[in-house]
Amino acid sequence: xxxxxxxxxxxxxxxxxxxxxxxxxxxxxxxxxxxxxxxxxxxxxxxxxxxxxxxxxxxxxxxxxxxxxxxxxxxxxxxxxxxxxxxxxxxxxxxxxxxxxxxxxxxxxxxxxxxxxxxxxxxxxxxxxxxxxxxxxxxxxxxxxxxxxxxxxxxxxxxxxxxxxxxxxxxxxxxxxxxxxxxxxxxxxxxxxxxxxxxxxxxxxxxxxxxxxxxxxxxxxxxxxxxxxxxxxxxxxxxxxxxxxxxxxxxxxxxxxxxxxxxxxxxxxxxxxxxxxxxxxxxxxxxxxxxxxxxxxxxxxxxxxxxxxxxxxxxxxxxxxxxxxxxxxxxxxxxxxxxxxxxxxxxxxxxxxxxxxxxxxxxxxxxxxxxxxxxxxxxxxxxxxxxxxxxxxxxxxxxxxxxxxxxxxxxxxxxxxxxxxxxxxxxxxxxxxxxxxxxxxxxxxxxxxxxxxxxxxxxxxxxxxxxxxxxxxxxxxxxxxxxxxxxxxxxxxxxxxxxxxxxxxxxxxxxxxxxxxxxxxxxxxxxxxxxxxxxxxxxxxxxxxxxxxxx
Length: 551
Known about the structure:
By secondary structure, this protein is of the alpha/beta class. It is built from 18 helices and 19 strands. Strand 13 (about 290-295), helix 10 (about 300-310) and strand 14 (about 320-325) form a beta-alpha-beta unit.
């Protein structure tokens, strides 16, 4: 049995060599989502993948406004499932792909997903790259013809070994997905996957690319499996017509009637986005900084993908962020149960930012999320409408803030300090680092909790100081209360912007800030440490950050 051991070859050859941009400068930040299969309409799991990448990308831009970011998403449009779904619908595969791909793109645009490239595997640029990938693998001896016999899952579009299959009532099923499988024997092109096992093991062991780490054990188990063998990477056109044809072989007639395996085709989308050209010394930004994937496609991204890249002599991804799935009221989403959630229904009811907030607040990478309408209404009303929205209303209303300004901080404000105001200032000074740590590790829920804790503390401070009374008896102390409260809103508004960009924009606009003020670094600059900051007028526009949901 293959075992992990101390593999000491130079890992830089595998992981850290950067291919370059056309300008000759290495890419600074490259994030990807999976490309989403177009055999059905998008659901909240798809949106969650895109939101994880988007929030991370927005945070990266917040920290490094001048950094060049490449953020790709898109749709996977080849394969037997597409062919069959189109046939059942009485339309062509092209029509099905156009229709469903546009649904994904419309959803992502509606939800403010700030991708820089939306790739479709039916595009000519992608077909060109896949052909070049195939030709290089073939010319370098990584592909060969063989008769491949094994269990085949149509829904997973994958061959499975005996150890990956179970029999129930005379029918065989995939242990991983639960889908039915059938025995298939056909002559295909095969990829020498077994030759890459040591390289992949070295990557897993030395680069520690898979996060959360709980998923590493499964990947190691796959690599250590005695049945670990080579991979079929083509299908006869008699079985699969809808895909990219195998390029002509140097030996005429050999494998000429094959279609390239859908996962080799699909995984190459990341190279297409990067502008891959074999042999070009400056072809693209590479490797990806982070690739966001669902746990159901872990094997393809943690075993097959790095193996293909290693064979192509390309660096392996720096990081795979693996997230779990979504349940609805503690029940797994399923078409048969009718509980698959349409994101558009949530957006119509809870707004775009409400939907973004709740999925990122409730979803955690290391375990399945549980969607509940009841919890969604509770948290949106409690945190966005009350904790955040009411705090802005209380501090910007003409009743307590007749001058409609963010008051300049005065040195003598320290005379008004209480244990609560001191705790609030200390919390604000620590907040950006706490949130940054959470966001960088895709634990957006933790970052949100940190922000809401500070906002609740701010509300407590306001309640204790009673500015509605201070306006009658101590106007100077009122200025202190307003200055600290509005400063808390400023910092929290900036840190929430990767999660709820529209709400944050409205909040910060109300506070009289412009885009140059909206950086991560500015969340570390406070009026009590930079006393030369002048007062700032509030916007005169009426602002409702989040309208309370009435059930």
